[in-house]
Structures are given as structure tokens and as C-alpha cells.
């Protein structure tokens, strides 16, 4: 399990796509739509990072992310 956690940390902090997403979010006055087929891995982590950036608590963001285990 620690390998999986390490993989998600690596995905979150060393992914140029997330840097690009946040650049778009910071420069856009309107909506930004991002998606994928399932929304669990890269897109789910992107959503998690956006929730944290918008001020959601880490605990609440984790709970929101974990809903993908139920609904996807």
C-alpha cells in the first residue's frame, strides 16, 4: 500500500499536466472543464488538488475523492 501512496504523491507533485491545469485555472475568469474516462487516478488527483487549492480541508477532499470508489 505504501507503494501506491508514493505513486500518488509522485503523480501529484511531478506531473507537468497539473502545473498546466493550475496555470489555466489562474489565467481563466470563466470555467475550466477537465475530465477523463473514469476520473479516479490522474483526473481524480487533479480534482483533489483543486479542492485543496480552493480551501477545502484535506480530510474533506480525501472523503470526496474516495467517493469514486463507490460510484465509479
TrEMBL record:
SUPFAM superfamilies: (Phosphotyrosine protein) phosphatases II
Pfam families, per database record: Y_phosphatase3 (PF13350)
Name of the protein in question: Tyrosine-protein phosphatase
InterPro entries: Prot-tyrosine_phosphatase-like, Tyr/Ser_Pase_IphP-type, Tyr_Pase_AS
GO molecular function term, any single one: phosphoprotein phosphatase activity
Amino acid at each position: 500500500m505504501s507503494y501506491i501512496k508514493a505513486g500518488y504523491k509522485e503523480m501529484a507533485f511531478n506531473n507537468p499536466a497539473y502545473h498546466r491545469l493550475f496555470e489555466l485555472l489562474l489565467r481563466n475568469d470563466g470555467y475550466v472543464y477537465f475530465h477523463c474516462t473514469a476520473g479516479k487516478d490522474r483526473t481524480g488527483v487533479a480534482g483533489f488538488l483543486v479542492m485543496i487549492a480552493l480551501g477545502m480541508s484535506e480530510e474533506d477532499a480525501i472523503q470526496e475523492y474516495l467517493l469514486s470508489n463507490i460510484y465509479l
